[in-house]
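Q: Convert this sequence to structure tokens.
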Amino acid sequence: MPKVSVIIPCHDDGAYLGDALKSLAAQTYQDFETIIVNDHSEDPLTIKKLSDLSKQGMIVLDSSERGPSAARNAGIRHASGEYIFTLDADDMIDARYLEKAARVLETHREVSLCCSNVQTFGLAKRTWIFDEISIPKMLTYECIVSSACMFRKDDWKTVGGFDENLLLGYEDFSFWLSLLDNCGKPHHFTEFFHHYRLKPKSRSAQLFQNNTEETAALAVFNAHHDLYTRNVKTFFMAYRNLHDEKTQRECLLSWNFALPLLRLEWKIRQIIKCMIGRA
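A:
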């Protein structure tokens, strides 16, 4: 049996799926299987691509329920690997990622999640760099755990899998919170192992375009109400920091506005002194 199972949910991303598979073929670690889960694709190109891959011997499953959570869960249930790696169909990973992550999970039982810094491509080239990954920083959005991560299948069972009720988004964020809260600490690679594609009409972009981001965030809050409650001090301090930053910005803005006036007043005073012979 393979040590690692790579799970790729795919909804109408046939145009990009080949890039994801090429990045897997280039891995320095080859003890893995790839499972693609068709998440109710309607795009003809994607349907043909998945059909062709299935005929070539690739494991291609159909998800009975809609959404990436259901697709990932379906793939993981079918997986033979001890370790699970989730990869979106439109993304790519560095050739060393699977090897590095599998080695960490193999040698550090206290680690439940392996993640990395992120290099974006597509619409824009950016880097997401984080020095530390922790639940408090995740809750206050001071760090991001991307969708391309490795974890143990047993831990997936422990937390009940990906929450299939989170249909709008943030389902991976919710799952990472569950893992770190119940199963162990994260291991964060400072290398840019995840190459994240920025594209129009992505699921993340649609959260804001459709004004559903707040609803999606509240759904995660409700799913982890106890976790948020236990971290209330974190939110209080984050609020204080925001308030202090706002106050400092307002003071700086006021000073920047007032300084030219004070200089002008000083110059006028000097001119008046000269005029009345007191300079």
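The beta strands are 4-10, 32-38, 59-62, 83-86, 92-93, 111-122, 127-128, 149-152, 185-198.
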